[in-house]
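Progress note, sequence design subtask.
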C-alpha cells in the first residue's frame, strides 16, 4: 500500500506526489502542476480527498519558522500560497497500482541475472532505486534495448503496460524498439537496474526497491541518498585518535542514527538503532513506516530524545555564528540540504588566523562513523537554515 499521507488522489482518480524543496529534484520529464491564481488554486485543492486536518498539518510542517499554528479557516489560503510559491509542488504519478501494473511484466532479466525494469520517470519521485539507466539519444536507447535480446512478446508487454502510444514515422511503421527507445530518450521512461546475482542480500535489496515504490513521504528534511562524500572536506581523513560514532543502518534513518548518537553522548546509553526505529514508529503512530524508502519529519526526534532521557529545545533560522555559540555548550542536530539529510554539528574549531573548521558527525555509512571536517564555505553550502535545529540540554 502507498503512504496516502503524501500520495494524493484527486476526484478523477489521478495520483500525485506532494513534494517540498527538501526533496530531490524531479526528473526533467516530470513536470509539476503550475499554480498562479489563489482562487483557482483553492478550488483545485477541493479536488483532493484530503481532510482539513491533514492540510493543516502540511501547512504547519512547511511553516515551522513562524511558530504559529494556522487556523482551519486560514488553511486553504495558506496551502494555496505554498503551492504558488513553489514551497510545495504537485507532481503527477504515472505508476501507482502495482497490482494492475506489476513490475514483473515490465522487467527483462539477462543471462547474468541482471534485471532491467522499464518504468515511468515519475516512479523516481516516490522511490530510490540503487541504479537507474537513462538515455539522451534515441540511438543509444535503441542499441541498449537490442543488447538485451528480448523477444517481441516481452517488448509488446512492456509497451502495453506503460501505455506507450504509437507514432507513425516517415516509413509508416513504429516498431516496438522504436517506440520504447523514443520514450527512453525523452526521459519519460527510465530503466531501473538490479543485479540479483550477488547473493541473498543483494537480491533482497533489489526486491525491496521494487516492492516499495510509492512509500516515500514528503517531510521536512528527510535523508536522501546521492550526496557523495565530499573529498574536499578539510582533513576529512580521520586520525586514529578521533572518536567514531554510529552510522545509519537504513537508507532513510539518518534522523534515528543522529538521535542515537546524541542519546549515547548525553546518557551513555548505546541503544540499538532497530529499537529506536521501532520506538519512532510508535511516536509517529505509523507501525508500517519503512525507513528503507521513507524519510521522517525530524521534529519527531525531539520526542525520541525525551523518551530516552534527553530534553531539548528547537530553533530555526540560526546563523553560523549562532550555531557556533550553541556548540560551545553541546552538539546540535541540524539539517543539510541538496539533498535533505540530518547530521550532528559537534563543534566549531577556530585557528590562530580565524579560519573555522566545522566538525560534523554525518551518519552516512560512506563516512565510516568518522567526523567530517568542513571549511566554513563547505559547511555554509550544505547547512539548511530553514530546517529546525534540535539543541539537547
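Output:
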Amino acid at each position: 500500500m502507498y503512504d496516502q499521507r503524501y500520495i494524493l488522489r484527486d476526484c478523477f482518480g489521478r495520483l500525485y506526489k506532494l513534494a517540498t524543496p527538501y526533496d530531490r529534484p524531479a526528473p526533467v520529464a516530470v513536470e509539476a502542476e503550475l499554480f498562479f491564481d489563489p482562487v483557482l488554486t483553492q478550488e483545485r485543492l477541493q479536488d483532493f480527498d484530503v481532510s482539513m486536518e491533514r492540510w493543516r498539518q502540511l501547512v504547519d510542517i512547511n511553516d515551522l519558522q513562524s511558530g504559529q499554528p494556522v487556523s482551519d479557516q486560514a488553511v486553504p489560503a495558506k496551502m494555496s500560497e505554498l503551492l504558488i510559491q513553489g514551497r510545495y509542488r504537485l507532481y503527477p504519478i504515472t505508476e501507482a497500482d502495482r497490482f494492475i501494473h506489476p513490475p514483473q511484466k515490465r522487467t527483462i532479466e539477462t543471462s547474468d541475472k541482471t534485471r532491467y525494469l522499464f518504468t515511468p520517470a515519475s516512479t523516481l519521485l516516490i522511490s530510490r532505486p540503487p541504479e537507474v539507466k537513462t538515455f539522451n539519444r534515441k540511438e543509444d536507447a535503441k542499441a541498449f534495448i537490442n543488447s538485451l535480446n528480448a523477444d517481441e512478446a516481452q517488448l509488446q508487454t512492456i509497451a502495453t503496460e506503460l501505455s506507450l502510444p504509437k507514432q507513425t514515422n516517415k516509413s509508416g511503421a513504429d516498431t516496438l524498439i522504436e517506440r520504447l527507445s523514443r520514450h527512453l530518450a525523452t526521459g519519460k521512461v527510465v530503466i531501473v537496474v538490479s543485479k540479483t546475482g550477488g547473493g541473498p542480500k543483494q537480491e533482497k535489496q533489489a526486491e525491496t526497491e521494487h516492492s516499495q515504490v510509492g512509500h516515500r513521504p514528503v517531510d521536512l528534511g528527510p535523508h536522501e541518498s546521492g550526496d557523495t562524500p565530499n573529498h574536499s572536506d578539510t582533513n576529512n581523513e580521520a586520525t586514529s585518535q578521533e572518536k567514531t560514532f554510529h552510522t545509519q543502518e537504513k537508507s532513510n534513518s539518518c534522523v534515528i542514527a543522529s538521535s542515537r548518537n546524541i542519546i549515547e553522548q548525553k546518557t551513555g546509553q548505546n541503544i540499538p538503532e532497530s529499537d529506536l526505529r521501532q520506538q519512532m514508529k510508535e511516536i509517529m503512530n505509523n507501525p508500517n513506516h519503512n525507513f528503507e524508502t521513507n524519510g521522517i519529519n525530524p521534529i519527531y526526534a525531539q520526542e525520541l530524545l525525551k523518551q530516552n532521557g534527553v530534553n531539548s529545545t528547537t530553533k530555526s533560522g540560526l546563523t553560523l555564528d549562532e550555531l557556533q555559540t550553541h556548540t560551545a555548550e553541546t552538539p546540535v542536530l541540524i539539517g543539510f540540504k541538496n539533498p535533505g539529510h540530518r547530521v550532528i554539528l559537534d563543534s566549531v574549531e577556530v585557528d590562530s588566523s580565524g579560519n573555522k573548521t566545522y566538525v560534523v558527525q554525518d551518519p552516512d555509512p560512506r563516512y565510516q562513523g568518522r567526523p567530517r571536517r568542513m571549511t566554513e564555505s563547505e559547511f555554509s553550502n550544505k547547512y539548511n537554515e530553514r530546517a529546525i535545529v534540535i539543541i539537547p540540554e
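The first strand starts at residue 7 and ends at 9. Work on this subtask will continue into the next period as scheduled.
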